[in-house]
Amino acid sequence: MSSDETVSERPSGVARTLVIGAAVLAVLLLGAAVGLLVKLPGSTSSAAPASGSADVGFCQDMSMHHLQGIQMANIARDRSADPEIRQLAFDIASTQLEQVGRMKGWLMMWNEHEQNVSGVYMAWMNDAGIHGHGATTPEAGKPLMPGMATTEELTKLRTLSGGEFDVYFLQLMLRHHTGGAPMAEYAATRAGQSVVRTLADNMLKSQSAETELMKDYLAKRGAAPLP
């Protein structure tokens, strides 16, 4: 074949999107399969946690919280040119995707909805003074869980580039991690299922390390966390 006939092998944007989508689905399915295969205390449906319990509520609400973290991490992997930011984003996305798949697998096993259908998040954290809400979505007027970015903030993130993008991503993700920590802390000590307590505890450990790393990255870039 002559040089004039050579066809570029570089995948198109559509093909790249399909590959990424397939990879995300594969990780979610793997996590769900692991969640279904993990033996929970007891083997009958009567051993499943009740609707509204810390186990069910945590899996529903933390899955939603994680999905936004994954969304922001994927934006960073696409837009940042900084190897540190891209590696951090990859670590967050891959870890949280597996965790979401695991939690959704348990919810399926318990015959529960994958999402909180009441619209009242964190009601399962019913100790006085523990649960609260952060920002609100302007289009719906519904409260978001602590640390969640608004639609406007996500739109702004997509408009930035270079160092400004890296700093804003770190600020949003740091706030996201900090906001989700109380949920994990509560589930790590109050969930009835040992596997849920273990997962919540593992989240706390990994996200605590990432939180300190993001604080260091912000300081190195002459920036501070969001107020």
TrEMBL record:
Which InterPro entries has this protein been placed in? DUF305_CopM-like (IPR005183), Ferritin-like (IPR012347)
In this chain the DUF305 domain maps to 55-218
**Record key words, sorted:** Membrane, Transmembrane, Transmembrane helix
Which domain of life does this protein belong to?
A: Bacteria
The question of whether Metal-binding is a record keyword is answered with no
Q: Which Pfam families match?
A: DUF305
Membrane spanning segments where?
18-38
Q: What is this protein called?
A: DUF305 domain-containing protein
User: According to the entry, what is the taxonomic lineage of the organism?
Assistant: Bacteria, Bacillati, Actinomycetota, Actinomycetes, Pseudonocardiales
